[in-house]
User: Fold this.
Amino acid sequence: MSDSKENKKMEDIIALCKRRGFVYQGSEIYGGLAGTWDYGPLGLALKKNIENLWWRFFVDSRDDMYGIDSAILMNPKVWEASGHVSGFSDPLVQCEKCKRRFRADHLDDAKKCPECGGKLGEPRQFNMMFKTSVGSVDGADTTVYMRPETAQGMFVNFKNILDSYHPKLPFGIAQIGRNFRNEIAPRDFIFRVRELEIMEFEYFIEEKSWSEQFEYWQKQMHEWFKLLGFAKDDIREIEIPDGDRAHYSKRTVDFHFNYPHKFDEIGGLAYRTDFDLKNHIKHSGVDLSYLDPNTNERSVPHVLEPTFGLGRHLLAVMVKAYTEDELGGEKRIFLKFPPHLAPIKAAVFPLLKNKPELVAKAREIYTELKKQIPQIMFDDNGNIGKRYRRQDEIGTPYCITVDFDTIEKDAGVTVRDRDTGKQERVSLSELKGFMKL
Assistant:
């Protein structure tokens, strides 16, 4: 696609997200706040589906993972030990004419303003952590930071997991959590934001096995992307060279998805060595070593970190699902979600909303199905064609229509497939099994 087509696709997705209740601008009635977004009912449902699938795949299906939920506010010494206080910064430049600020490493021309053509000042480092304070007495407050990553919560709980569960290497500590980064220039809808959620785990290993384990998790990440319905050419691996990696990493591979604005990062795999645990040992004075039960020898484990941006995953799923086609001679927009990710799995309709007997039967079927399929909707708003289009646009895989034959002849219901528009008669006893959810 050309840039204009790609930009149009992003604009169309943003409009659909607002129209159908996936994503809203944060604080919209006050003009919004750059880099903040609110998830509506459908966006929240889709986000939860991605979270739950991730947790099942990487945590619940394994015997070597331990889930936690660590605090957002942490002792500021954590961020000194991790290197964030001194090193978590981006190069900032400001236009001398229009006063707009930009990240210097994201500009094609570091001397010319991309907005007004004015002269850009010299780059200076800008720490991206949000500061706040803890305390109640003026002048005696303690400065703390809104966490910029979930990783440190897992490192500072390493000893707790050892003491509580006595796991053997290799094992992982996983969490899904909210993070805060004072981005200089939030952009591309929910791609680069100031408040974000990360799904990740720290996988603790012996140093000698890091290369083998790195390759294993690399493959597992590709298996994860398949679960989301991504094709092989939707994802690119980017090996990060020396000098460009984070200060803690000996090897990093970023995974890029084909977003409308460009191929850009959706996740990453980093070999953090023993950097974090050793620094926390040094700064806290607490022994964070691991005692091998077989050799009775102590060592500081090395760490692999697969990490996944939740908002970026949701955007990627939306981008992949967004489809325009013709059905019955009419153009339509629909979201071709894999059924296991769809925020609404099925919708139940009465053929006519002004016939009480049809509405009552449809309600009865809806109530019974909802006991087994919570993400189901009852819809009697507008004519049947408008309902189909509305459900297509929010990605509902199946529409179930109750008509007079359902009541008078016990002839089941009509089930319409979102992708093909094909309609089939299905008995009520076979209805749940017919839908591939």
